[in-house]
Specification:
heterodimer; A: mainly alpha; globular; B: mainly alpha; 3 strands; about 5% strand
């Protein structure tokens, strides 16, 4: 890339990717009324420019990595950092702290953008999917009174999300972590007149706040442990290298990352944050409700991009997790459980968007399960699945939106059916998405899911696995303890009991269970996906009365993105899997090039037995769905009725929402009311009682108030004399 | 500036004099009717703000700014007689810089939000508001104890009348309670300040009331903090605390605040929440910490605890509120808890965060109170359950309310986050660097509770936003027919539910501007006050650190003796190593509680 070979222009591009959508958002806010029905122009133009810039950056990164592979090993870390401005800084006092004390650190936060393979991948994904969704929204949102507001928010979201994945500092990541949450809040509550939408928006924000609590505390712990919040190494004014938390200096040093109790606590708190944003158990409750927002927003934010921020975060902080095997196994347990629970709930939902919402939760659980393996394969598989999922889930959501658009806003699958004749393009593209989600070869989901299952199996059957996985297992086992043995803050103390109790879970048996859960989930996924597909598109054609007489295929601005996404869902998997380009590329990300992560890398092999197992599970699910729903009326009796009380459990989402209400919300409100009563009656009453004392005293003293001016004057003089005497006495002493 | 050169000192005097002149102007123009009165008040406030902004810019470009030294010093002998030395002494420094600017900014907001709502006796109203402005500007620039106290008390009087005359239904009780409560506290403060002066005089021989002289004098001859002297420094600290704690307010001395806010006219609420609450914190920074560091260090853990209690308590009580203004008043209690916690964490990061948070809270709470007033003017109710769906009628009002809400709940990218985050990270750092004996685990618990307060804060604010702005429109049906009729009769009032008018934009836009600006580049605002804040608090921090070190030594001895009793044979060299081990990993110990070490784990340590 000769044109972009200079560092300057690359830095400019790094800056352009977030900046242009920001300008687009501001322009839409200012010009929205003037542009009217053309209010999408600034937003779409800006996202398109950002997408182009992101793709160029991706190409630049690919080129760099390729050069790196020829020069050195495949795992040569690569990053470039642009510092924009100092956000905040506080010098530390030169306190003479002894060895017993943790020193106060200078606090300096710069707004920095980074570029590495992981960031480049995420930037391209966010901007490209964002662009397609924005184009789709021209058709979907037309005639909406909030048309300009919608596009302003989408552009704002793209800005925040690109900053989130490009920031090179934990604090700045946190800033945009909440910023995307705020965009999500505003988009869920887009139709604020609907009380349900307003409530769902609030719920999403609050549940995310619980996750953010974890993120904030994790940041504080990281700061007191490492004395910085930067990812990258930086140069101090006097020329010494200040190692960042995820900088090359620390990553290449075996004892650079701190494990043990502090490390595990940090990882678990980051996991809490990721659970909030990525809707994992037990903080998943906001995502299904978030479907109150406009469907394109659901596709972009609540399926393809924002909810994957948790996966991004854990991948970015992979070295921290790998140093804490106890925390890693928790990540997988959370992920696999979420995947299974959400898939079970999805099997009985009748709202098409909710099926997809639970499916998103379930697929994110897959990614978490993969991350928790702590293998290089696990991390790249999670990002691989993140990508393919972004394509096919955005496709499915947009397809659902197309259905909803045509059905006059009805989304209950029991009320329509056989739509393949009414809207053929939507039906075919939806089928592509369903096949990808169900994991049928050669669609994308098959390959990414296969890699996840491989990663899990490597952990579950370390000896029977085919390659050097035994060695890699030993690597994680060896490096991690050494890390916290030699670390500066951690030592052999009683506190190892806490991570050790978690590490006890890190046995092949647990991983075998997780592998089986994932396989069963694959079957369930295929079932609910095709259940939805059959209910919506097959059987006798039925259209609800809300649709009127104009039930029709959606306009080209909507079907165009559908077709593009369908193609991506079709070919991206086999291409990436076949060439292994993604995992080789990502391996140059500093976090994944750390020896503790890269050491677990294994040569890429296609496992026929796993592929067969995965495919069998999918086909079984599809078959059951076909038996139950193919060609039938969607409002007819279904096999789900055989589930009995279990079905009720699924329909009520395992009563998790109710548990929250009765365990958290109600008690807190009760305490709040109690305290408010205490405040206004007891505390304030006490103040009033004290306030009455002078008045009662006054009644006693009233006799002194004779009204004689002379007497007052005498009293005044005596008082002043006393004061002066006191002063003089003080001065003498 | 060729013909005359405006010296900084004259400039400062001009800033202080302008509102007084303006209030006279208001009085003179009073006969010409309401519009002349309010126009002249607005012009006065704008002129003062411009002069203030200009002065701040001059300060930032002056050599004094680099070290936070006093600037624009006005010094006129006032009562100088023999040993007595009271000066009329004003000046601006790093400590007062931003709060000084905030006072001028919020005064304009206060004047503008009253544009429509004050219909009766407007001459008196605007005069008092402008006098209050001078008093506020004076409090923060006074460099003499007596002058400070005069201005301090003088902020009470105008506000007492503003609440008592132009307030809502229960205004008299609110005004009386506010006045008596604050006055009662400030009497103790005055006694405390006098004691400081007397102590200094006993060494220097001059009854100097100059704050800098006092600070230097007390640093040279600290007030004794020993049992023999009867803990004199602690008593004086408590005396100062009495007044400042009521002002802040620190829970449980806060009960005047919700009442005063609910009953105050909007303009009064804006000044009260935005500036007057900050005087307490300013007092800590100006007097308590630099002058009484030993007592401050001893009291710090208790005040941190009260701060955390305030954070959680204020947030929980706010959840139960049904009156929008009361809810925001309790959110103020919660947010001032962060400031108190940050200041008394005695950690550089937390202190600077607290100092910035004063400004942040001033901006966001003033904005929210102003907006509540605007809602009240339109719907004649503040009841959260009776309002609803305002977003459909007044989108810009909603946008601004949400902006200030986001600022208040600490959304990153806006100002509230910066202060809150720095306070919390400083508090964590403090609890890891160690706290005095018996407080170590508690400090970590309190840090976590304070972070949890952030979640609660989002809860009540977003609940209110959801009820008031979203959903179907409710407010108009909540109106009684009488008030609806009065709504239509009023020729200048809102005949329909309008979006923001120009004066409302004028009141809110500057606040919104700073909310965003501080959020994006907080360093711009942190840097100028940094060195002044640090030098004011350094003594207290050092004493606190020394106490921590001392208590760690005691702790290490107690561990040694305990280990000796468990392993009588262990050599002293070995036990020394053990205690070192504990402290090199002191923050991992915190997670489990340092004084709960079972003997079997000691065995593990001793036998490698």
């Amino acid at each position: 890339m000769p044109f972009f070979s200079t560092e300057m222009s690359i830095e400019t591009l790094q800056l352009l990717v977030p900046l242009v959508p920001f300008i687009g958002a501001v322009a839409t806010i200012i010009l929205g009324r003037v542009l009217g029905s053309k209010a999408h122009i600034p937003a779409i133009a800006s996202i398109a420019i950002a997408a182009a810039a992101a793709l160029v950056l991706l190409a630049v990164e690919v080129e760099r990595v390729r050069e790196g592979t020829t020069v050195e090993s495949a795992a040569r870390p690569d990053e470039s950092i642009v510092t924009l401005w100092q956000w905040a800084g506080v010098e530390s006092d030169p306190v003479d702290h002894n060895a017993n004390q943790v020193a106060a650190r200078p606090f300096s936060i710069d707004v920095t953008l980074r570029l590495d393979p992981l960031t480049a991948t995420m930037l391209s994904l966010v901007t490209c999917v964002g662009l397609l969704v924005a184009i789709y929204s021209i058709g979907y949102m037309h005639d909406d009174p909030g048309y300009p507001r919608f596009f302003a928010l989408v552009a704002m979201f793209v800005f925040s999300m690109t900053m989130l994945v490009a920031a090179s500092n934990f604090l700045i990541v946190y800033v945009f972590w909440e910023a995307v949450g705020a965009c999500s809040y505003l988009l869920i509550g887009f139709w604020f007149q609907k009380p349900d939408a307003a409530r769902a928006a609030k719920k999403a924000f609050l549940v995310n706040r619980i996750g953010d609590f974890g993120f904030a505390v994790a940041l504080f712990l990281l700061f007191v442990t490492y004395g910085t919040l930067d990812f990258h190494d930086s140069l101090s004014p006097n020329g010494t290298i200040l190692p960042g938390i995820l900088g090359k200096t620390r990553l290449m040093d075996e004892s650079g990352i701190i494990g043990g109790a502090i490390g595990t606590a940090v990882c678990l708190l980051l996991l809490l944050a990721a659970c909030g944003k990525s809707a994992q158990l037990p903080l998943h409750v906001w995502l299904p409700d978030a479907m109150e927002g406009p469907t394109p927003a659901s596709a972009l934010i609540h399926a393809a991009t924002m909810v994957t921020a948790g996966v991004y975060l854990i991948t970015r902080t992979a070295p921290l997790f790998v140093a804490c095997p106890g925390a890693l196994v928790v990540v997988s347990i959370v992920g696999a459980s979420t995947a299974m629970v959400a898939a079970l709930i999805a099997t009985v939902q009748n709202d098409l968007k909710r099926v997809l919402a639970y499916s998103t939760i379930s697929q994110l659980g897959y990614m978490f399960a993969s991350l928790g393996t702590g293998l290089a394969l696990g991390f790249t598989a999670a990002i691989f699945h993140l990508m393919t999922h972004a394509f096919f889930k955005a496709l499915l959501f947009l397809g659902a939106g197309s259905v909803m658009h045509s059905m006059g806003g009805v989304i209950d699958m029991r009320r329509f059916g056989g739509l393949r004749k009414v809207m053929p393009i939507t039906a075919i593209t939806f089928l592509c998405g369903s096949l990808a989600l169900a994991g049928v070869a050669p669609f994308a989901g098959f390959f990414s899911k296969d890699e996840i299952l491989t990663a899990l199996r490597t952990k579950g059957w370390p000896d029977t696995a085919h390659h050097s996985s035994h060695e890699s297992h030993a690597m994680t086992g060896l490096i991690a303890p050494r890390m916290h043995l030699t670390s500066s803050v951690e030592s052999v103390t009683n506190v190892d009991a806490f991570p050790a109790s978690l590490e006890a879970l890190n046995t092949p048996f647990v991983w075998q269970i997780l592998w089986w859960m994932s396989l069963i989930t694959a079957g369930l996924t295929a079932f609910y996906t095709f259940r939805a597909f059959f209910m919506t598109f097959t059987g006798p054609t039925r259209v609800p009365h809300e649709a009127g007489h104009h039930a029709h295929e959606s306009p080209p601005t909507m079907t165009g993105p559908l077709v593009l996404l369908a193609i991506a869902s079709g070919v991206s998997g086999i291409w990436i899997f076949g060439t292994q380009s993604l995992s080789l590329f990502l391996a140059s990300t500093p976090s994944l090039a750390a020896p503790s992560v890269a050491g677990t890398a294994v040569p890429h092999v296609f496992h026929l037995d796993l592929a067969v197992q995965g495919t069998l599970a999918s086909l079984l699910g599809i078959s059951i769905a076909a038996i139950a729903h193919l060609g039938r009326r969607s409002d007819g009796p279904h096999i789900e009725r055989f589930l009995g009380p279990v079905g009720t459990l699924f329909e009520n989402k395992f009563y998790i929402d109710l548990i929250y209400v009765f365990v958290v919300v109600r008690p807190l409100e009760f305490i709040a009311r109690l305290l408010a009563f205490f405040d206004s009656s007891v505390l304030d009453g006490l103040v009033d009682a004290v306030g009455r004392v002078p008045f009662s005293l006054g009644r006693v003293l009233r006799s002194l108030q004779s009204g004689l001016l002379q007497r007052y004057a005498v009293a005044g003089v005596v008082g002043v004399l006393a004061l002066v005497l006191a002063l003089v006495w003080q001065l003498r002493g | 500036m060729t013909s005359f050169d405006l010296t900084p000192a004259t400039h400062l005097l001009l800033v202080l004099a302008t509102p007084i002149v303006g209030s006279l102007l208001v009085w003179v123009l009073g006969a010409r009717g309401r519009s002349a009165v309010r126009q002249s008040a607005v012009v006065t406030a704008v002129v003062t703000l411009v002069l203030t902004g200009w002065l701040i810019l001059r300060y930032l470009n002056s050599p004094e700014a680099a070290v936070g030294a006093p600037y624009a010093v006005v010094q006129v002998p006032w009562l100088v007689d023999g040993a007595l030395d009271i000066q009329f002494s004003l000046g601006l420094d790093g400590l007062s810089l931003w709060i000084f600017g905030l006072s001028a900014l919020l005064s304009l907001t206060a004047v503008l939000v009253s544009w429509q709502s004050i219909k009766e006796r407007s001459v008196g109203f605007y005069m008092l508001l402008l006098i209050l402005e001078t008093a506020m500007l004076g409090v923060f620039t006074a460099r003499d104890v007596v002058l400070f106290y005069v201005f301090f008390e003088f902020t009470l009087v105008p506000l007492f009348f503003l609440i008592g005359i132009w307030g809502h239904e229960d205004r008299r009780r609110a005004a009386a309670k506010f006045f008596i409560y604050t006055l009662a506290g400030s009497v103790f403060t005055f006694i405390g300040l006098l004691s400081v002066v007397l102590w200094n005089a006993s060494h220097s021989g001059i009854l100097s009331f100059d704050i800098d002289t006092l600070t230097a004098g007390l640093a040279a001859h600290p007030i004794p903090m020993t049992a023999e002297s009867g803990w004199l420094q602690m008593w004086i600290f408590c005396a100062l605390l009495a007044g400042f704690a009521v002002k802040v307010p620190i829970v449980p001395l806060h009960t005047w605040l919700p009442l005063a806010h609910v009953e105050a006219p909007t303009g009064g609420s804006v000044d009260l929440a935005g500036v007057l609450l900050k005087i307490g914190m300013y007092g800590f920074l100006r007097f308590s910490l630099p002058m009484l560091p030993d007592a401050a260090a001893v009291a710090a853990p208790w005040l941190v605890s009260l701060g955390v209690v305030g954070i959680v308590y204020g947030a929980l009580v706010a959840i139960a509120q049904r009156d929008l203004k009361r809810l925001i008043a309790f959110s103020s209690v919660s947010h001032m808890g962060y400031c108190v916690m940050g200041l008394f964490a005695l950690d550089a990061l937390a202190i600077e965060g607290a100092n910035l948070q004063l400004i942040n809270h001033g901006l966001s709470s003033a904005g929210l109170f102003a907006l509540v007033g605007m809602i009240y003017e339109r719907y004649h109710t503040r009841s959260i359950v009776n309002l609803g769906g305002i977003a459909s009628k007044a989108p810009w009002l909603t946008v601004l309310f949400m902006l200030f809400t986001f600022s208040s709940i600490g959304l990153p990218g806006l100002n509230g986050f910066v202060g809150e985050f720095m306070i919390l990270i400083g508090m964590f750092q403090r609890s890891f660097r160690g706290a005095p004996l018996h407080w170590e685990t508690l400090y970590l618990v309190m840090s976590l509770a304070a972070v949890a307060g952030v979640v609660l804060g989002a809860w009540y604010m977003l609940w209110a936003v959801e009820r008031v702005f979203f959903g179907a429109e409710r407010g108009s049906s909540g109106l009684s027919s009488g008030s609806q009729a009065s709504l239509q009769k009023d020729p200048h009032g809102f005949t329909a539910i309008d979006d923001l008018r120009w004066w409302e934009w004028g009141a809110l836009a500057p606040l919104a501007f700073f909310v965003v600006w501080i959020g994006i580049t907080p360093q711009t605002f942190l840097a100028p006050s940094s060195s002044a804040v640090r030098s004011a608090t350094r003594a207290s921090c050092d004493v606190f650190d020394a106490r921590v070190k001392a208590s760690q030594k005691t702790f290490s001895e107690s561990v040694t003796t305990r280990t000796d009793s468990v392993f009588p044979s262990a050599s002293s060299h070995e036990t020394q190593n053990i205690s070192n081990l504990f402290f090199s990993s002191r923050h991992s110990l915190l997670l489990t509680g340092p004084r709960m070490i079972p003997s079997d784990q000691l065995t593990r340590i001793v036998s490698p």
